[in-house]
Write a structure and sequence with these properties.
about 85% helix, about 0% strand, elongated
Length: about 90
């Protein structure tokens, strides 16, 4: 393998690592924002009169839906991470 080709492959691997790290940082940032908004929503929910609050059934449905969305997003991120590793052979 020529030296130039090795340099190009290393640069490609470095770029992929940077992209992966940026995606992980962004994921953490979005998770933090989501948690903050959910906390705000639940705090607001507690201040409402009882006749305006969500019913236990509605809360259960929301929690179930959010769990499903979270699981799908986690699966997508894991697939993307595996794809990055396959493309660049990085640990």
């Amino acid at each position: 393998m020529s030296r130039n080709l090795k340099v190009v492959e290393q640069a490609k691997a470095d770029i992929m690592i940077l992209a992966r790290d940026a995606a992980e940082r962004q994921t953490r940032q979005y998770q933090k924002q989501y948690n903050m908004k959910m906390n705000q929503m639940w705090q607001h929910e507690k201040t409402l009169p009882s006749d305006q609050r969500l019913t236990p059934t509605m809360i259960h449905m929301m929690e179930k839906r959010l769990t499903n969305i979270g699981a799908r997003l986690e699966y997508i991120y894991k697939c993307k991470a595996q794809l990055f590793q396959l493309k660049t052979n990085i640990p």
